[in-house]
Specification:
By secondary structure, this protein is mainly beta. It is built from 1 helix and 6 strands; from the N terminus they run E-E-E-E-H-E-E. A 6-stranded mixed β-sheet has the order 1-2-5-6-4-3. Strand 3 and strand 4 form a beta hairpin.
Length: about 130
């Protein structure tokens, strides 16, 4: 996905899918930071990132590319932030590798309370991870 007309990260159309941000690194390229977003849930069921807030440091995340290549990452940070903080500094953190000598992975999803006026949740869960040598 790219950015919306309001210059915010677009989301997958289905709550069971994730979306790779097309201005971030490509999984497995060995440098930079990959950014993937997904939904926490919908009106009647959980989304693909429903348990994102439960990831702990050293938990492993495996990303499988369309060509079958699998890249393993270890969690190094998991934060829940206000929407404002996520938009101002959080996204930049996700797009910057935690360890610049290794490929990074950033995951993001919505959390918190629904704000009907703005049609948005008021918090974001941001997870950072680093690639594990294969």
């Amino acid at each position: 996905v790219g950015l919306t007309k309001n210059n915010i990260l677009d989301t997958p159309k289905n709550i069971s899918d994730t979306a790779w941000y097309n201005k971030s690194a490509i999984p497995g390229q060995g440098y930079g930071a990959v950014l993937i977003d997904g939904h926490n849930g919908g009106m009647s069921k959980d989304g693909v990132f429903a348990g994102l807030d439960k990831l702990k440091n050293d938990d492993e995340i495996i990303v499988e590319r369309g060509d079958g290549q699998k890249i393993t990452y270890k969690v190094v940070e998991n934060k829940t932030e206000s929407l404002k903080d996520a938009n101002t500094t959080g996204m930049q953190r996700l797009l910057t590798p935690f360890d610049t000598s290794k490929e990074g992975l950033g995951l993001i999803t919505c959390a918190g309370k629904w704000v009907p006026r703005d049609k948005v949740f008021d918090k974001r869960i941001l997870v950072r991870a680093v690639a594990v040598e294969s």
